[in-house]
């Protein structure tokens, strides 16, 4: 089975929420996946960019075997590995459209993603707090105002902007609205913190409860597959 690199570049719709979503994919998600994969810390297998043979899908029990899993794409990859096969990242990239029309849509989407990562790797997700240097610098300044946390915050914004510029250069992207970099970093940290409070998610407008094993149960009886 081959999985193209996970929606590494993003095209934003109109409005700030869509631009924040695209900025998050290109300057947060993509670098994290690249580092995790490169260091062997992650085993990516991402949603709509998955391709596999029909016989492989049948061997793992079809889509029904993972229909109720929150991390369905990850579970699919694990089941394929369980057959002794390899999940590989392809050499080409796939673009991702960001149509989020409101901040609420953006928060619901990214909170579901964050809780999915938490479900897959709780310790790794908690450890990713170090990937939020700007909010940590702000918290340090609130605890003890001074020049050091201010300099740390400025360095964090500069580093994130530089990372964004590098991604744009490599993938030939249009420039992102760099003024949104601080807001994007603070938003990502807020979603990170919220991911530890509760397990429920909203997916395509429907609410689901998620148990400790990552199995979803619809809160709408008409939608409940069980």
Question: How many helix segments?
Answer: 8
Strand order of the largest sheet: 3-4-5
Percentage of residues assigned to helices: 40-55%
Q: Outline the low-pLDDT stretches.
A: 1-8, 221-226
Report the sheet-strand fraction.
5-15%
Largest sheet: 3 strands, antiparallel
Tally of discrete structural domains: 1
Spatial gap, N to C terminus? 30 Å
From the alpha carbons, calculate the radius of gyration and give it in angstroms. Answer: 19 Å
The overall average pLDDT, rounded, is 88
What is the 3D shape?
globular
* Number of E strands: 5
Structural class: alpha+beta
Order of helices and strands: EHHHEHHHHHEEE
Structure, described:
By secondary structure, this protein is of the alpha+beta class. The protein has one domain. Helices cover 50% and strands 15% of the residues. The chain contains eight helices and five strands, in the order E-H-H-H-E-H-H-H-H-H-E-E-E. The strands form two sheets. The protein has a three-stranded antiparallel beta sheet with strand order 3-4-5. A two-stranded parallel sheet has the order 1-2. A hairpin with a 5-residue loop joins strand 4 (206-210) and strand 5 (216-218). The longest helix is centred in the last third of the chain and has 25 residues, at 147-171. The protein is globular and about 60 Å long. The model is unreliable at 1-8 and 221-226 (pLDDT under 50).
Features of the shown structure:
single chain, 226 residues, alpha+beta, two-stranded parallel sheet, three-stranded antiparallel sheet, 15% strand
């Amino acid at each position: 089975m081959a999985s193209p690199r996970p929606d590494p570049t993003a095209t934003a719709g109109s409005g700030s929420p869509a631009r924040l979503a695209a900025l998050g994919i290109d300057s947060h998600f993509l670098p994290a996946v690249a580092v995790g994969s490169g260091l062997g810390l992650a085993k990516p297998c991402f949603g709509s960019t998955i391709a596999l043979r029909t016989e492989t899908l049948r061997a793992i029990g079809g889509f029904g075997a993972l229909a109720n899993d929150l991390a369905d794409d990850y579970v699919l990859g694990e089941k394929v590995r369980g057959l002794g096969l390899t999940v590989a990242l392809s050499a080409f990239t796939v673009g991702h459209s960001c149509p989020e029309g409101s901040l609420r849509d953006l928060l619901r989407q990214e909170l579901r993603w964050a809780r999915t990562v938490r479900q897959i790797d709780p310790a790794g997700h908690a450890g990713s707090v170090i990937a939020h240097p700007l909010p940590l610098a702000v918290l340090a300044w609130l605890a003890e105002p001074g020049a050091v946390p201010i300099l740390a915050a400025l360095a964090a914004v500069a580093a994130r902007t530089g990372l964004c510029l590098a991604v744009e250069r490599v993938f030939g992207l249009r420039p992102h609205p760099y003024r949104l970099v601080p807001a994007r970093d603070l938003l990502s940290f807020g979603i990170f913190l919220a991911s530890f409070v509760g397990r429920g998610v909203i997916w395509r407008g429907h609410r689901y409860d998620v148990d400790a094993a990552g199995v979803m149960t619809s809160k709408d009886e008409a939608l409940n597959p069980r």
